[in-house]
From TrEMBL, chain A:
This is ABC transporter permease. The lineage of its organism: Bacteria, Pseudomonadati, Pseudomonadota, Alphaproteobacteria, Rhodobacterales. The chain crosses the membrane at residues 7-29, 69-90, 102-124, 152-171, 204-224, 253-273. It is found in: Cell membrane. InterPro entries: MetI-like (IPR000515), MetI-like_sf (IPR035906). Keywords: Cell membrane, Membrane, Transmembrane, Transmembrane helix, Transport. PANTHER family: INNER MEMBRANE ABC TRANSPORTER PERMEASE PROTEIN YDCU-RELATED, INNER MEMBRANE ABC TRANSPORTER PERMEASE PROTEIN YDCU-RELATED-RELATED. It comes from Sagittula salina.
TrEMBL record, chain B:
InterPro entries: AAA+_ATPase (IPR003593), ABC_SmlMolc_Importer (IPR050093), ABC_transporter-like_ATP-bd (IPR003439), ABC_transporter-like_CS (IPR017871), Mo/tungstate-bd_C_term_dom (IPR008995), P-loop_NTPase (IPR027417), Transp-assoc_OB_typ2 (IPR013611). Keywords: ATP-binding, Nucleotide-binding, Transport. This is ABC transporter ATP-binding protein. GO terms for cellular component: ATP-binding cassette (ABC) transporter complex.
């Protein structure tokens, strides 16, 4: 009996161990080793911290690094602001069928690939696109307007891609809030704002934090949206990693960049948890 | 808790011709009542009778279709729920789980913008009053059911509302605690000296605590009165059937003499009971409570009663003080009779022959619309 349970346990654990080991741990160890060496000549490498030194002294790299962090935090904040009312409406105000339909509507964009969705935005926003033509037709503009390849377009794309991952945890936590608790908030003299601040938001906090963590990670690691909507000047850190690995074949620097990104995302998630006074365990459990 | 030094005559709460319709269904149908200051008023009815709708209208979460709600004489129809001098204890209490006990109780005071030291003092006093001093720093889920109950009341009472509404707050408690909280609620009401409006489907809660009880059915008030009124002098068959248990017979009235009535039941028995407004030939229904039927081993002991039956015990329903027996009479009907716990019938068992009897005053007769 005990032997059987042990075999069952091992069998259940195997896929997870394989997945973590083969796809996460081993590549990261290899990446760490690559990032900690320097190419002396063809096929000759020497252990050194030169890659990190280069990454931290070159202003372009540093600026891109900082900019990616700030923009990702901003995208997370905007996503939260947009998603909260949507989630509140779905969880608390919509009833029965409408609730399901609205939830499905949030999901529908994910039926098409991210590439196609991003092309959709390009069709709308480009110089010869729908919005530009419409503005000329109405008379708001007298020449084609280019709305692509700037930070705003990139932000729109990032928020759009992340919406679902914020709405789902928010809806789940808001649904678990008893309506009578909200009513009690009003009954005891609260107005809409104070009920939101003292009752609804504190209750939704686990959803807010887990949604923010997921959206932040997705934005930080997003490659497609910044490249396509932000254009050449988007200066996204993942593009830099891509360039080092693929364009320059400089795996050493690319690996160092990758580690910097890992440290950055860990630090910001940790900071977010500290700021809201939660532990990772509470948020995920 | 400022006692009215100059008591004005306006009742604390007054509902006038209150109507609430949801589409085609009328949830509350022309209900009027007044609640005098400092009293404990209960609305008692089966689930779905519209009692919660009345409460939500008083609290301001629903708007009446027509009619008026007045608190201390002034209409509150145009007052938002958060501005009404009414607070509500919710069915599942709705304590704020994200706050400590002290923050829960202080919530309403913070909304009023009271200075911090005053809030702390008032919260301390309230905790003192409900007999739970020093628990202010605890979390809601660290309290027992009864303690949460008291905190929910304290959270409302610190705001000194004119009327406190309670929506079946004892429903979630286990039986023993519920019995205890009944007494405690009544004591709290006396201590706070505030008008309580209590809704429940549990007649014992209503009977034990209330000064006045309104029995509600299908959106209407069937009868408003004290517990004794409802129990001894029900106005309608619904009240007679809802408050306490009853044995019932339907039949046709044969003779009337003032309030005294003689009816032949459909099973052929002749019974005497009392009821107003009936005449010979009317269809009628007689209600007799199990506890007003006397049990005896011989017919002579029952000679003072004008209804006497003989039967056999078919079942003994032992339930401590509330034990009953089922008696099958000569025509095959089964009656419930309370089993006295004086020891006289301790040896009673299934199949024994017994005599039962009750006075005509104990039987209440209502006309039936054929």
């Amino acid at each position: 009996m005990r032997a059987e349970t042990r075999i069952g346990f091992i069998l259940l654990l195997t896929p997870l161990v394989l997945w973590l080991g083969l796809l996460i741990v081993i590549p990261h160890i290899d990446m760490a080793l690559i990032s900690l060496r320097e190419r002396i000549s063809f096929g000759v490498y020497e252990p050194s911290l030169a890659q990190y030194e280069k990454a931290l002294t070159e202003p372009l790299y540093l600026r891109t690094f900082g900019r990616t962090a700030v923009m990702s935090v901003l995208a997370t904040a905007i996503t939260l602001l947009v998603a909260f009312p949507v989630a509140y409406y779905i969880a608390k105000m919509a009833k029965g069928r409408l609730q399901q339909v609205l939830f499905l509507l949030c999901l529908i964009p994910f039926y098409v690939s991210e590439l196609v969705r991003t092309f959709g935005w390009m069709i709308l926003l480009r110089e010869t696109g729908l919005i530009s033509s419409l503005m000329q037709w109405v008379g708001l503009a007298d020449q084609p307007v280019e709305m692509l390849y700037n930070d705003a377009a990139m932000m729109v794309g990032l928020v759009y891609t992340s919406m679902l991952f914020m709405v789902v945890p928010l809806v789940t936590t808001l649904e678990s809030l008893d309506d009578s608790v909200i009513e009690a908030g009003y009954d005891l003299g609260g107005n809409g704002w104070s009920v939101l601040r003292e009752i609804i938001i504190p209750h939704a906090m686990p959803g807010v934090v887990s949604g923010c963590i997921v959206v932040f990670m997705l934005s930080l690691g997003n490659y497609l949206t910044p490249t396509m909507l932000g254009g050449k000047d988007s200066l996204w850190f993942t593009e830099m990693i891509y360039n080092q690995f693929i364009v320059r074949s400089n795996w050493e620097l690319g690996a160092a960049f990758g580690f910097m990104l890992l440290v950055l995302s860990s630090a910001i998630v940790w900071g977010m948890l500290r700021l809201t006074g939660r532990t990772l365990q509470e948020t995920m459990g | 808790m400022t006692p009215d030094l100059a008591p004005d005559l306006a009742p604390d709460l007054e509902c006038v011709d209150l109507v609430k319709r949801f589409g085609d269904t009328t949830a509350v149908d022309n209900v009027s009542f007044t609640v005098p200051p400092g009293s404990f008023f209960s609305i008692l009815g089966p689930s779905g009778c519209g009692k919660t709708t009345i409460m939500r209208m008083i609290a301001g979460f629903l708007e009446p279709t027509s009619g008026d709600i007045r608190i201390k004489g002034g209409s509150v129809l145009d007052v938002a729920p958060n501005k009404r001098p009414v607070n509500m204890v919710f069915q599942h209490l709705a304590l704020f789980p994200m706050m400590t006990i002290a923050e829960n109780i202080g919530y309403g005071l913070r909304r009023r913008g009271l200075p911090k030291d005053q809030i702390t003092r008032k919260v301390g006093e309230a905790l003192e009053r409900i007999g739970l001093p020093g628990i202010g720093g605890r979390k809601v889920d660290e309290l027992s059911g009864g303690q949460k109950q008291r905190v929910a009341i304290a959270r409302c009472m610190v705001l000194e509302p004119d009327v406190l509404l309670l929506d079946e707050p004892l429903g979630a408690l286990d039986l023993k605690l519920r019995e205890h909280m009944k007494v405690e609620l009544k004591a709290l009401q006396a201590a706070f000296d505030t008008t309580f409006v209590y809704i429940t489907h549990d007649q014992s809660e209503a009977l034990v605590m209330s000064d006045q009880i309104a029995v509600m059915n299908h959106g209407r008030f069937e009868q408003v009165g004290t517990g004794q009124d409802l129990y001894y002098r029900p106005d309608t068959p619904f009240v007679a059937g809802f408050i306490g248990d009853s044995n019932r017979w339907t039949g046709r009235v044969e003779r009337t003499e003032g309030e005294a009535i003689e009816m032949r039941t459909d099973s052929g028995l002749v019974m005497r009971a009392s009821g107003a407004g009936l005449k010979a030939g009317d269809r009628a229904e007689i209600f007799v409570r199990p506890e007003s039927i006397r049990l005896a081993s011989s017919a002579e002991a029952l000679s003072v009663f004008d209804n006497r039956l003989q039967g056999t015990v078919t079942s003994i329903l032992f339930n401590g003080a509330a034990s009953r027996i089922l008696v099958e009479d000569g025509v095959g009907e089964t009656l419930e009779v309370t089993l006295p716990q004086s020891g006289e019938f301790a040896a009673l068992k299934r199949g024994d022959a017994v005599h039962i009897g009750w006075g005509s005053v104990q039987g209440t007769c209502f006309g039936r619309i054929a």
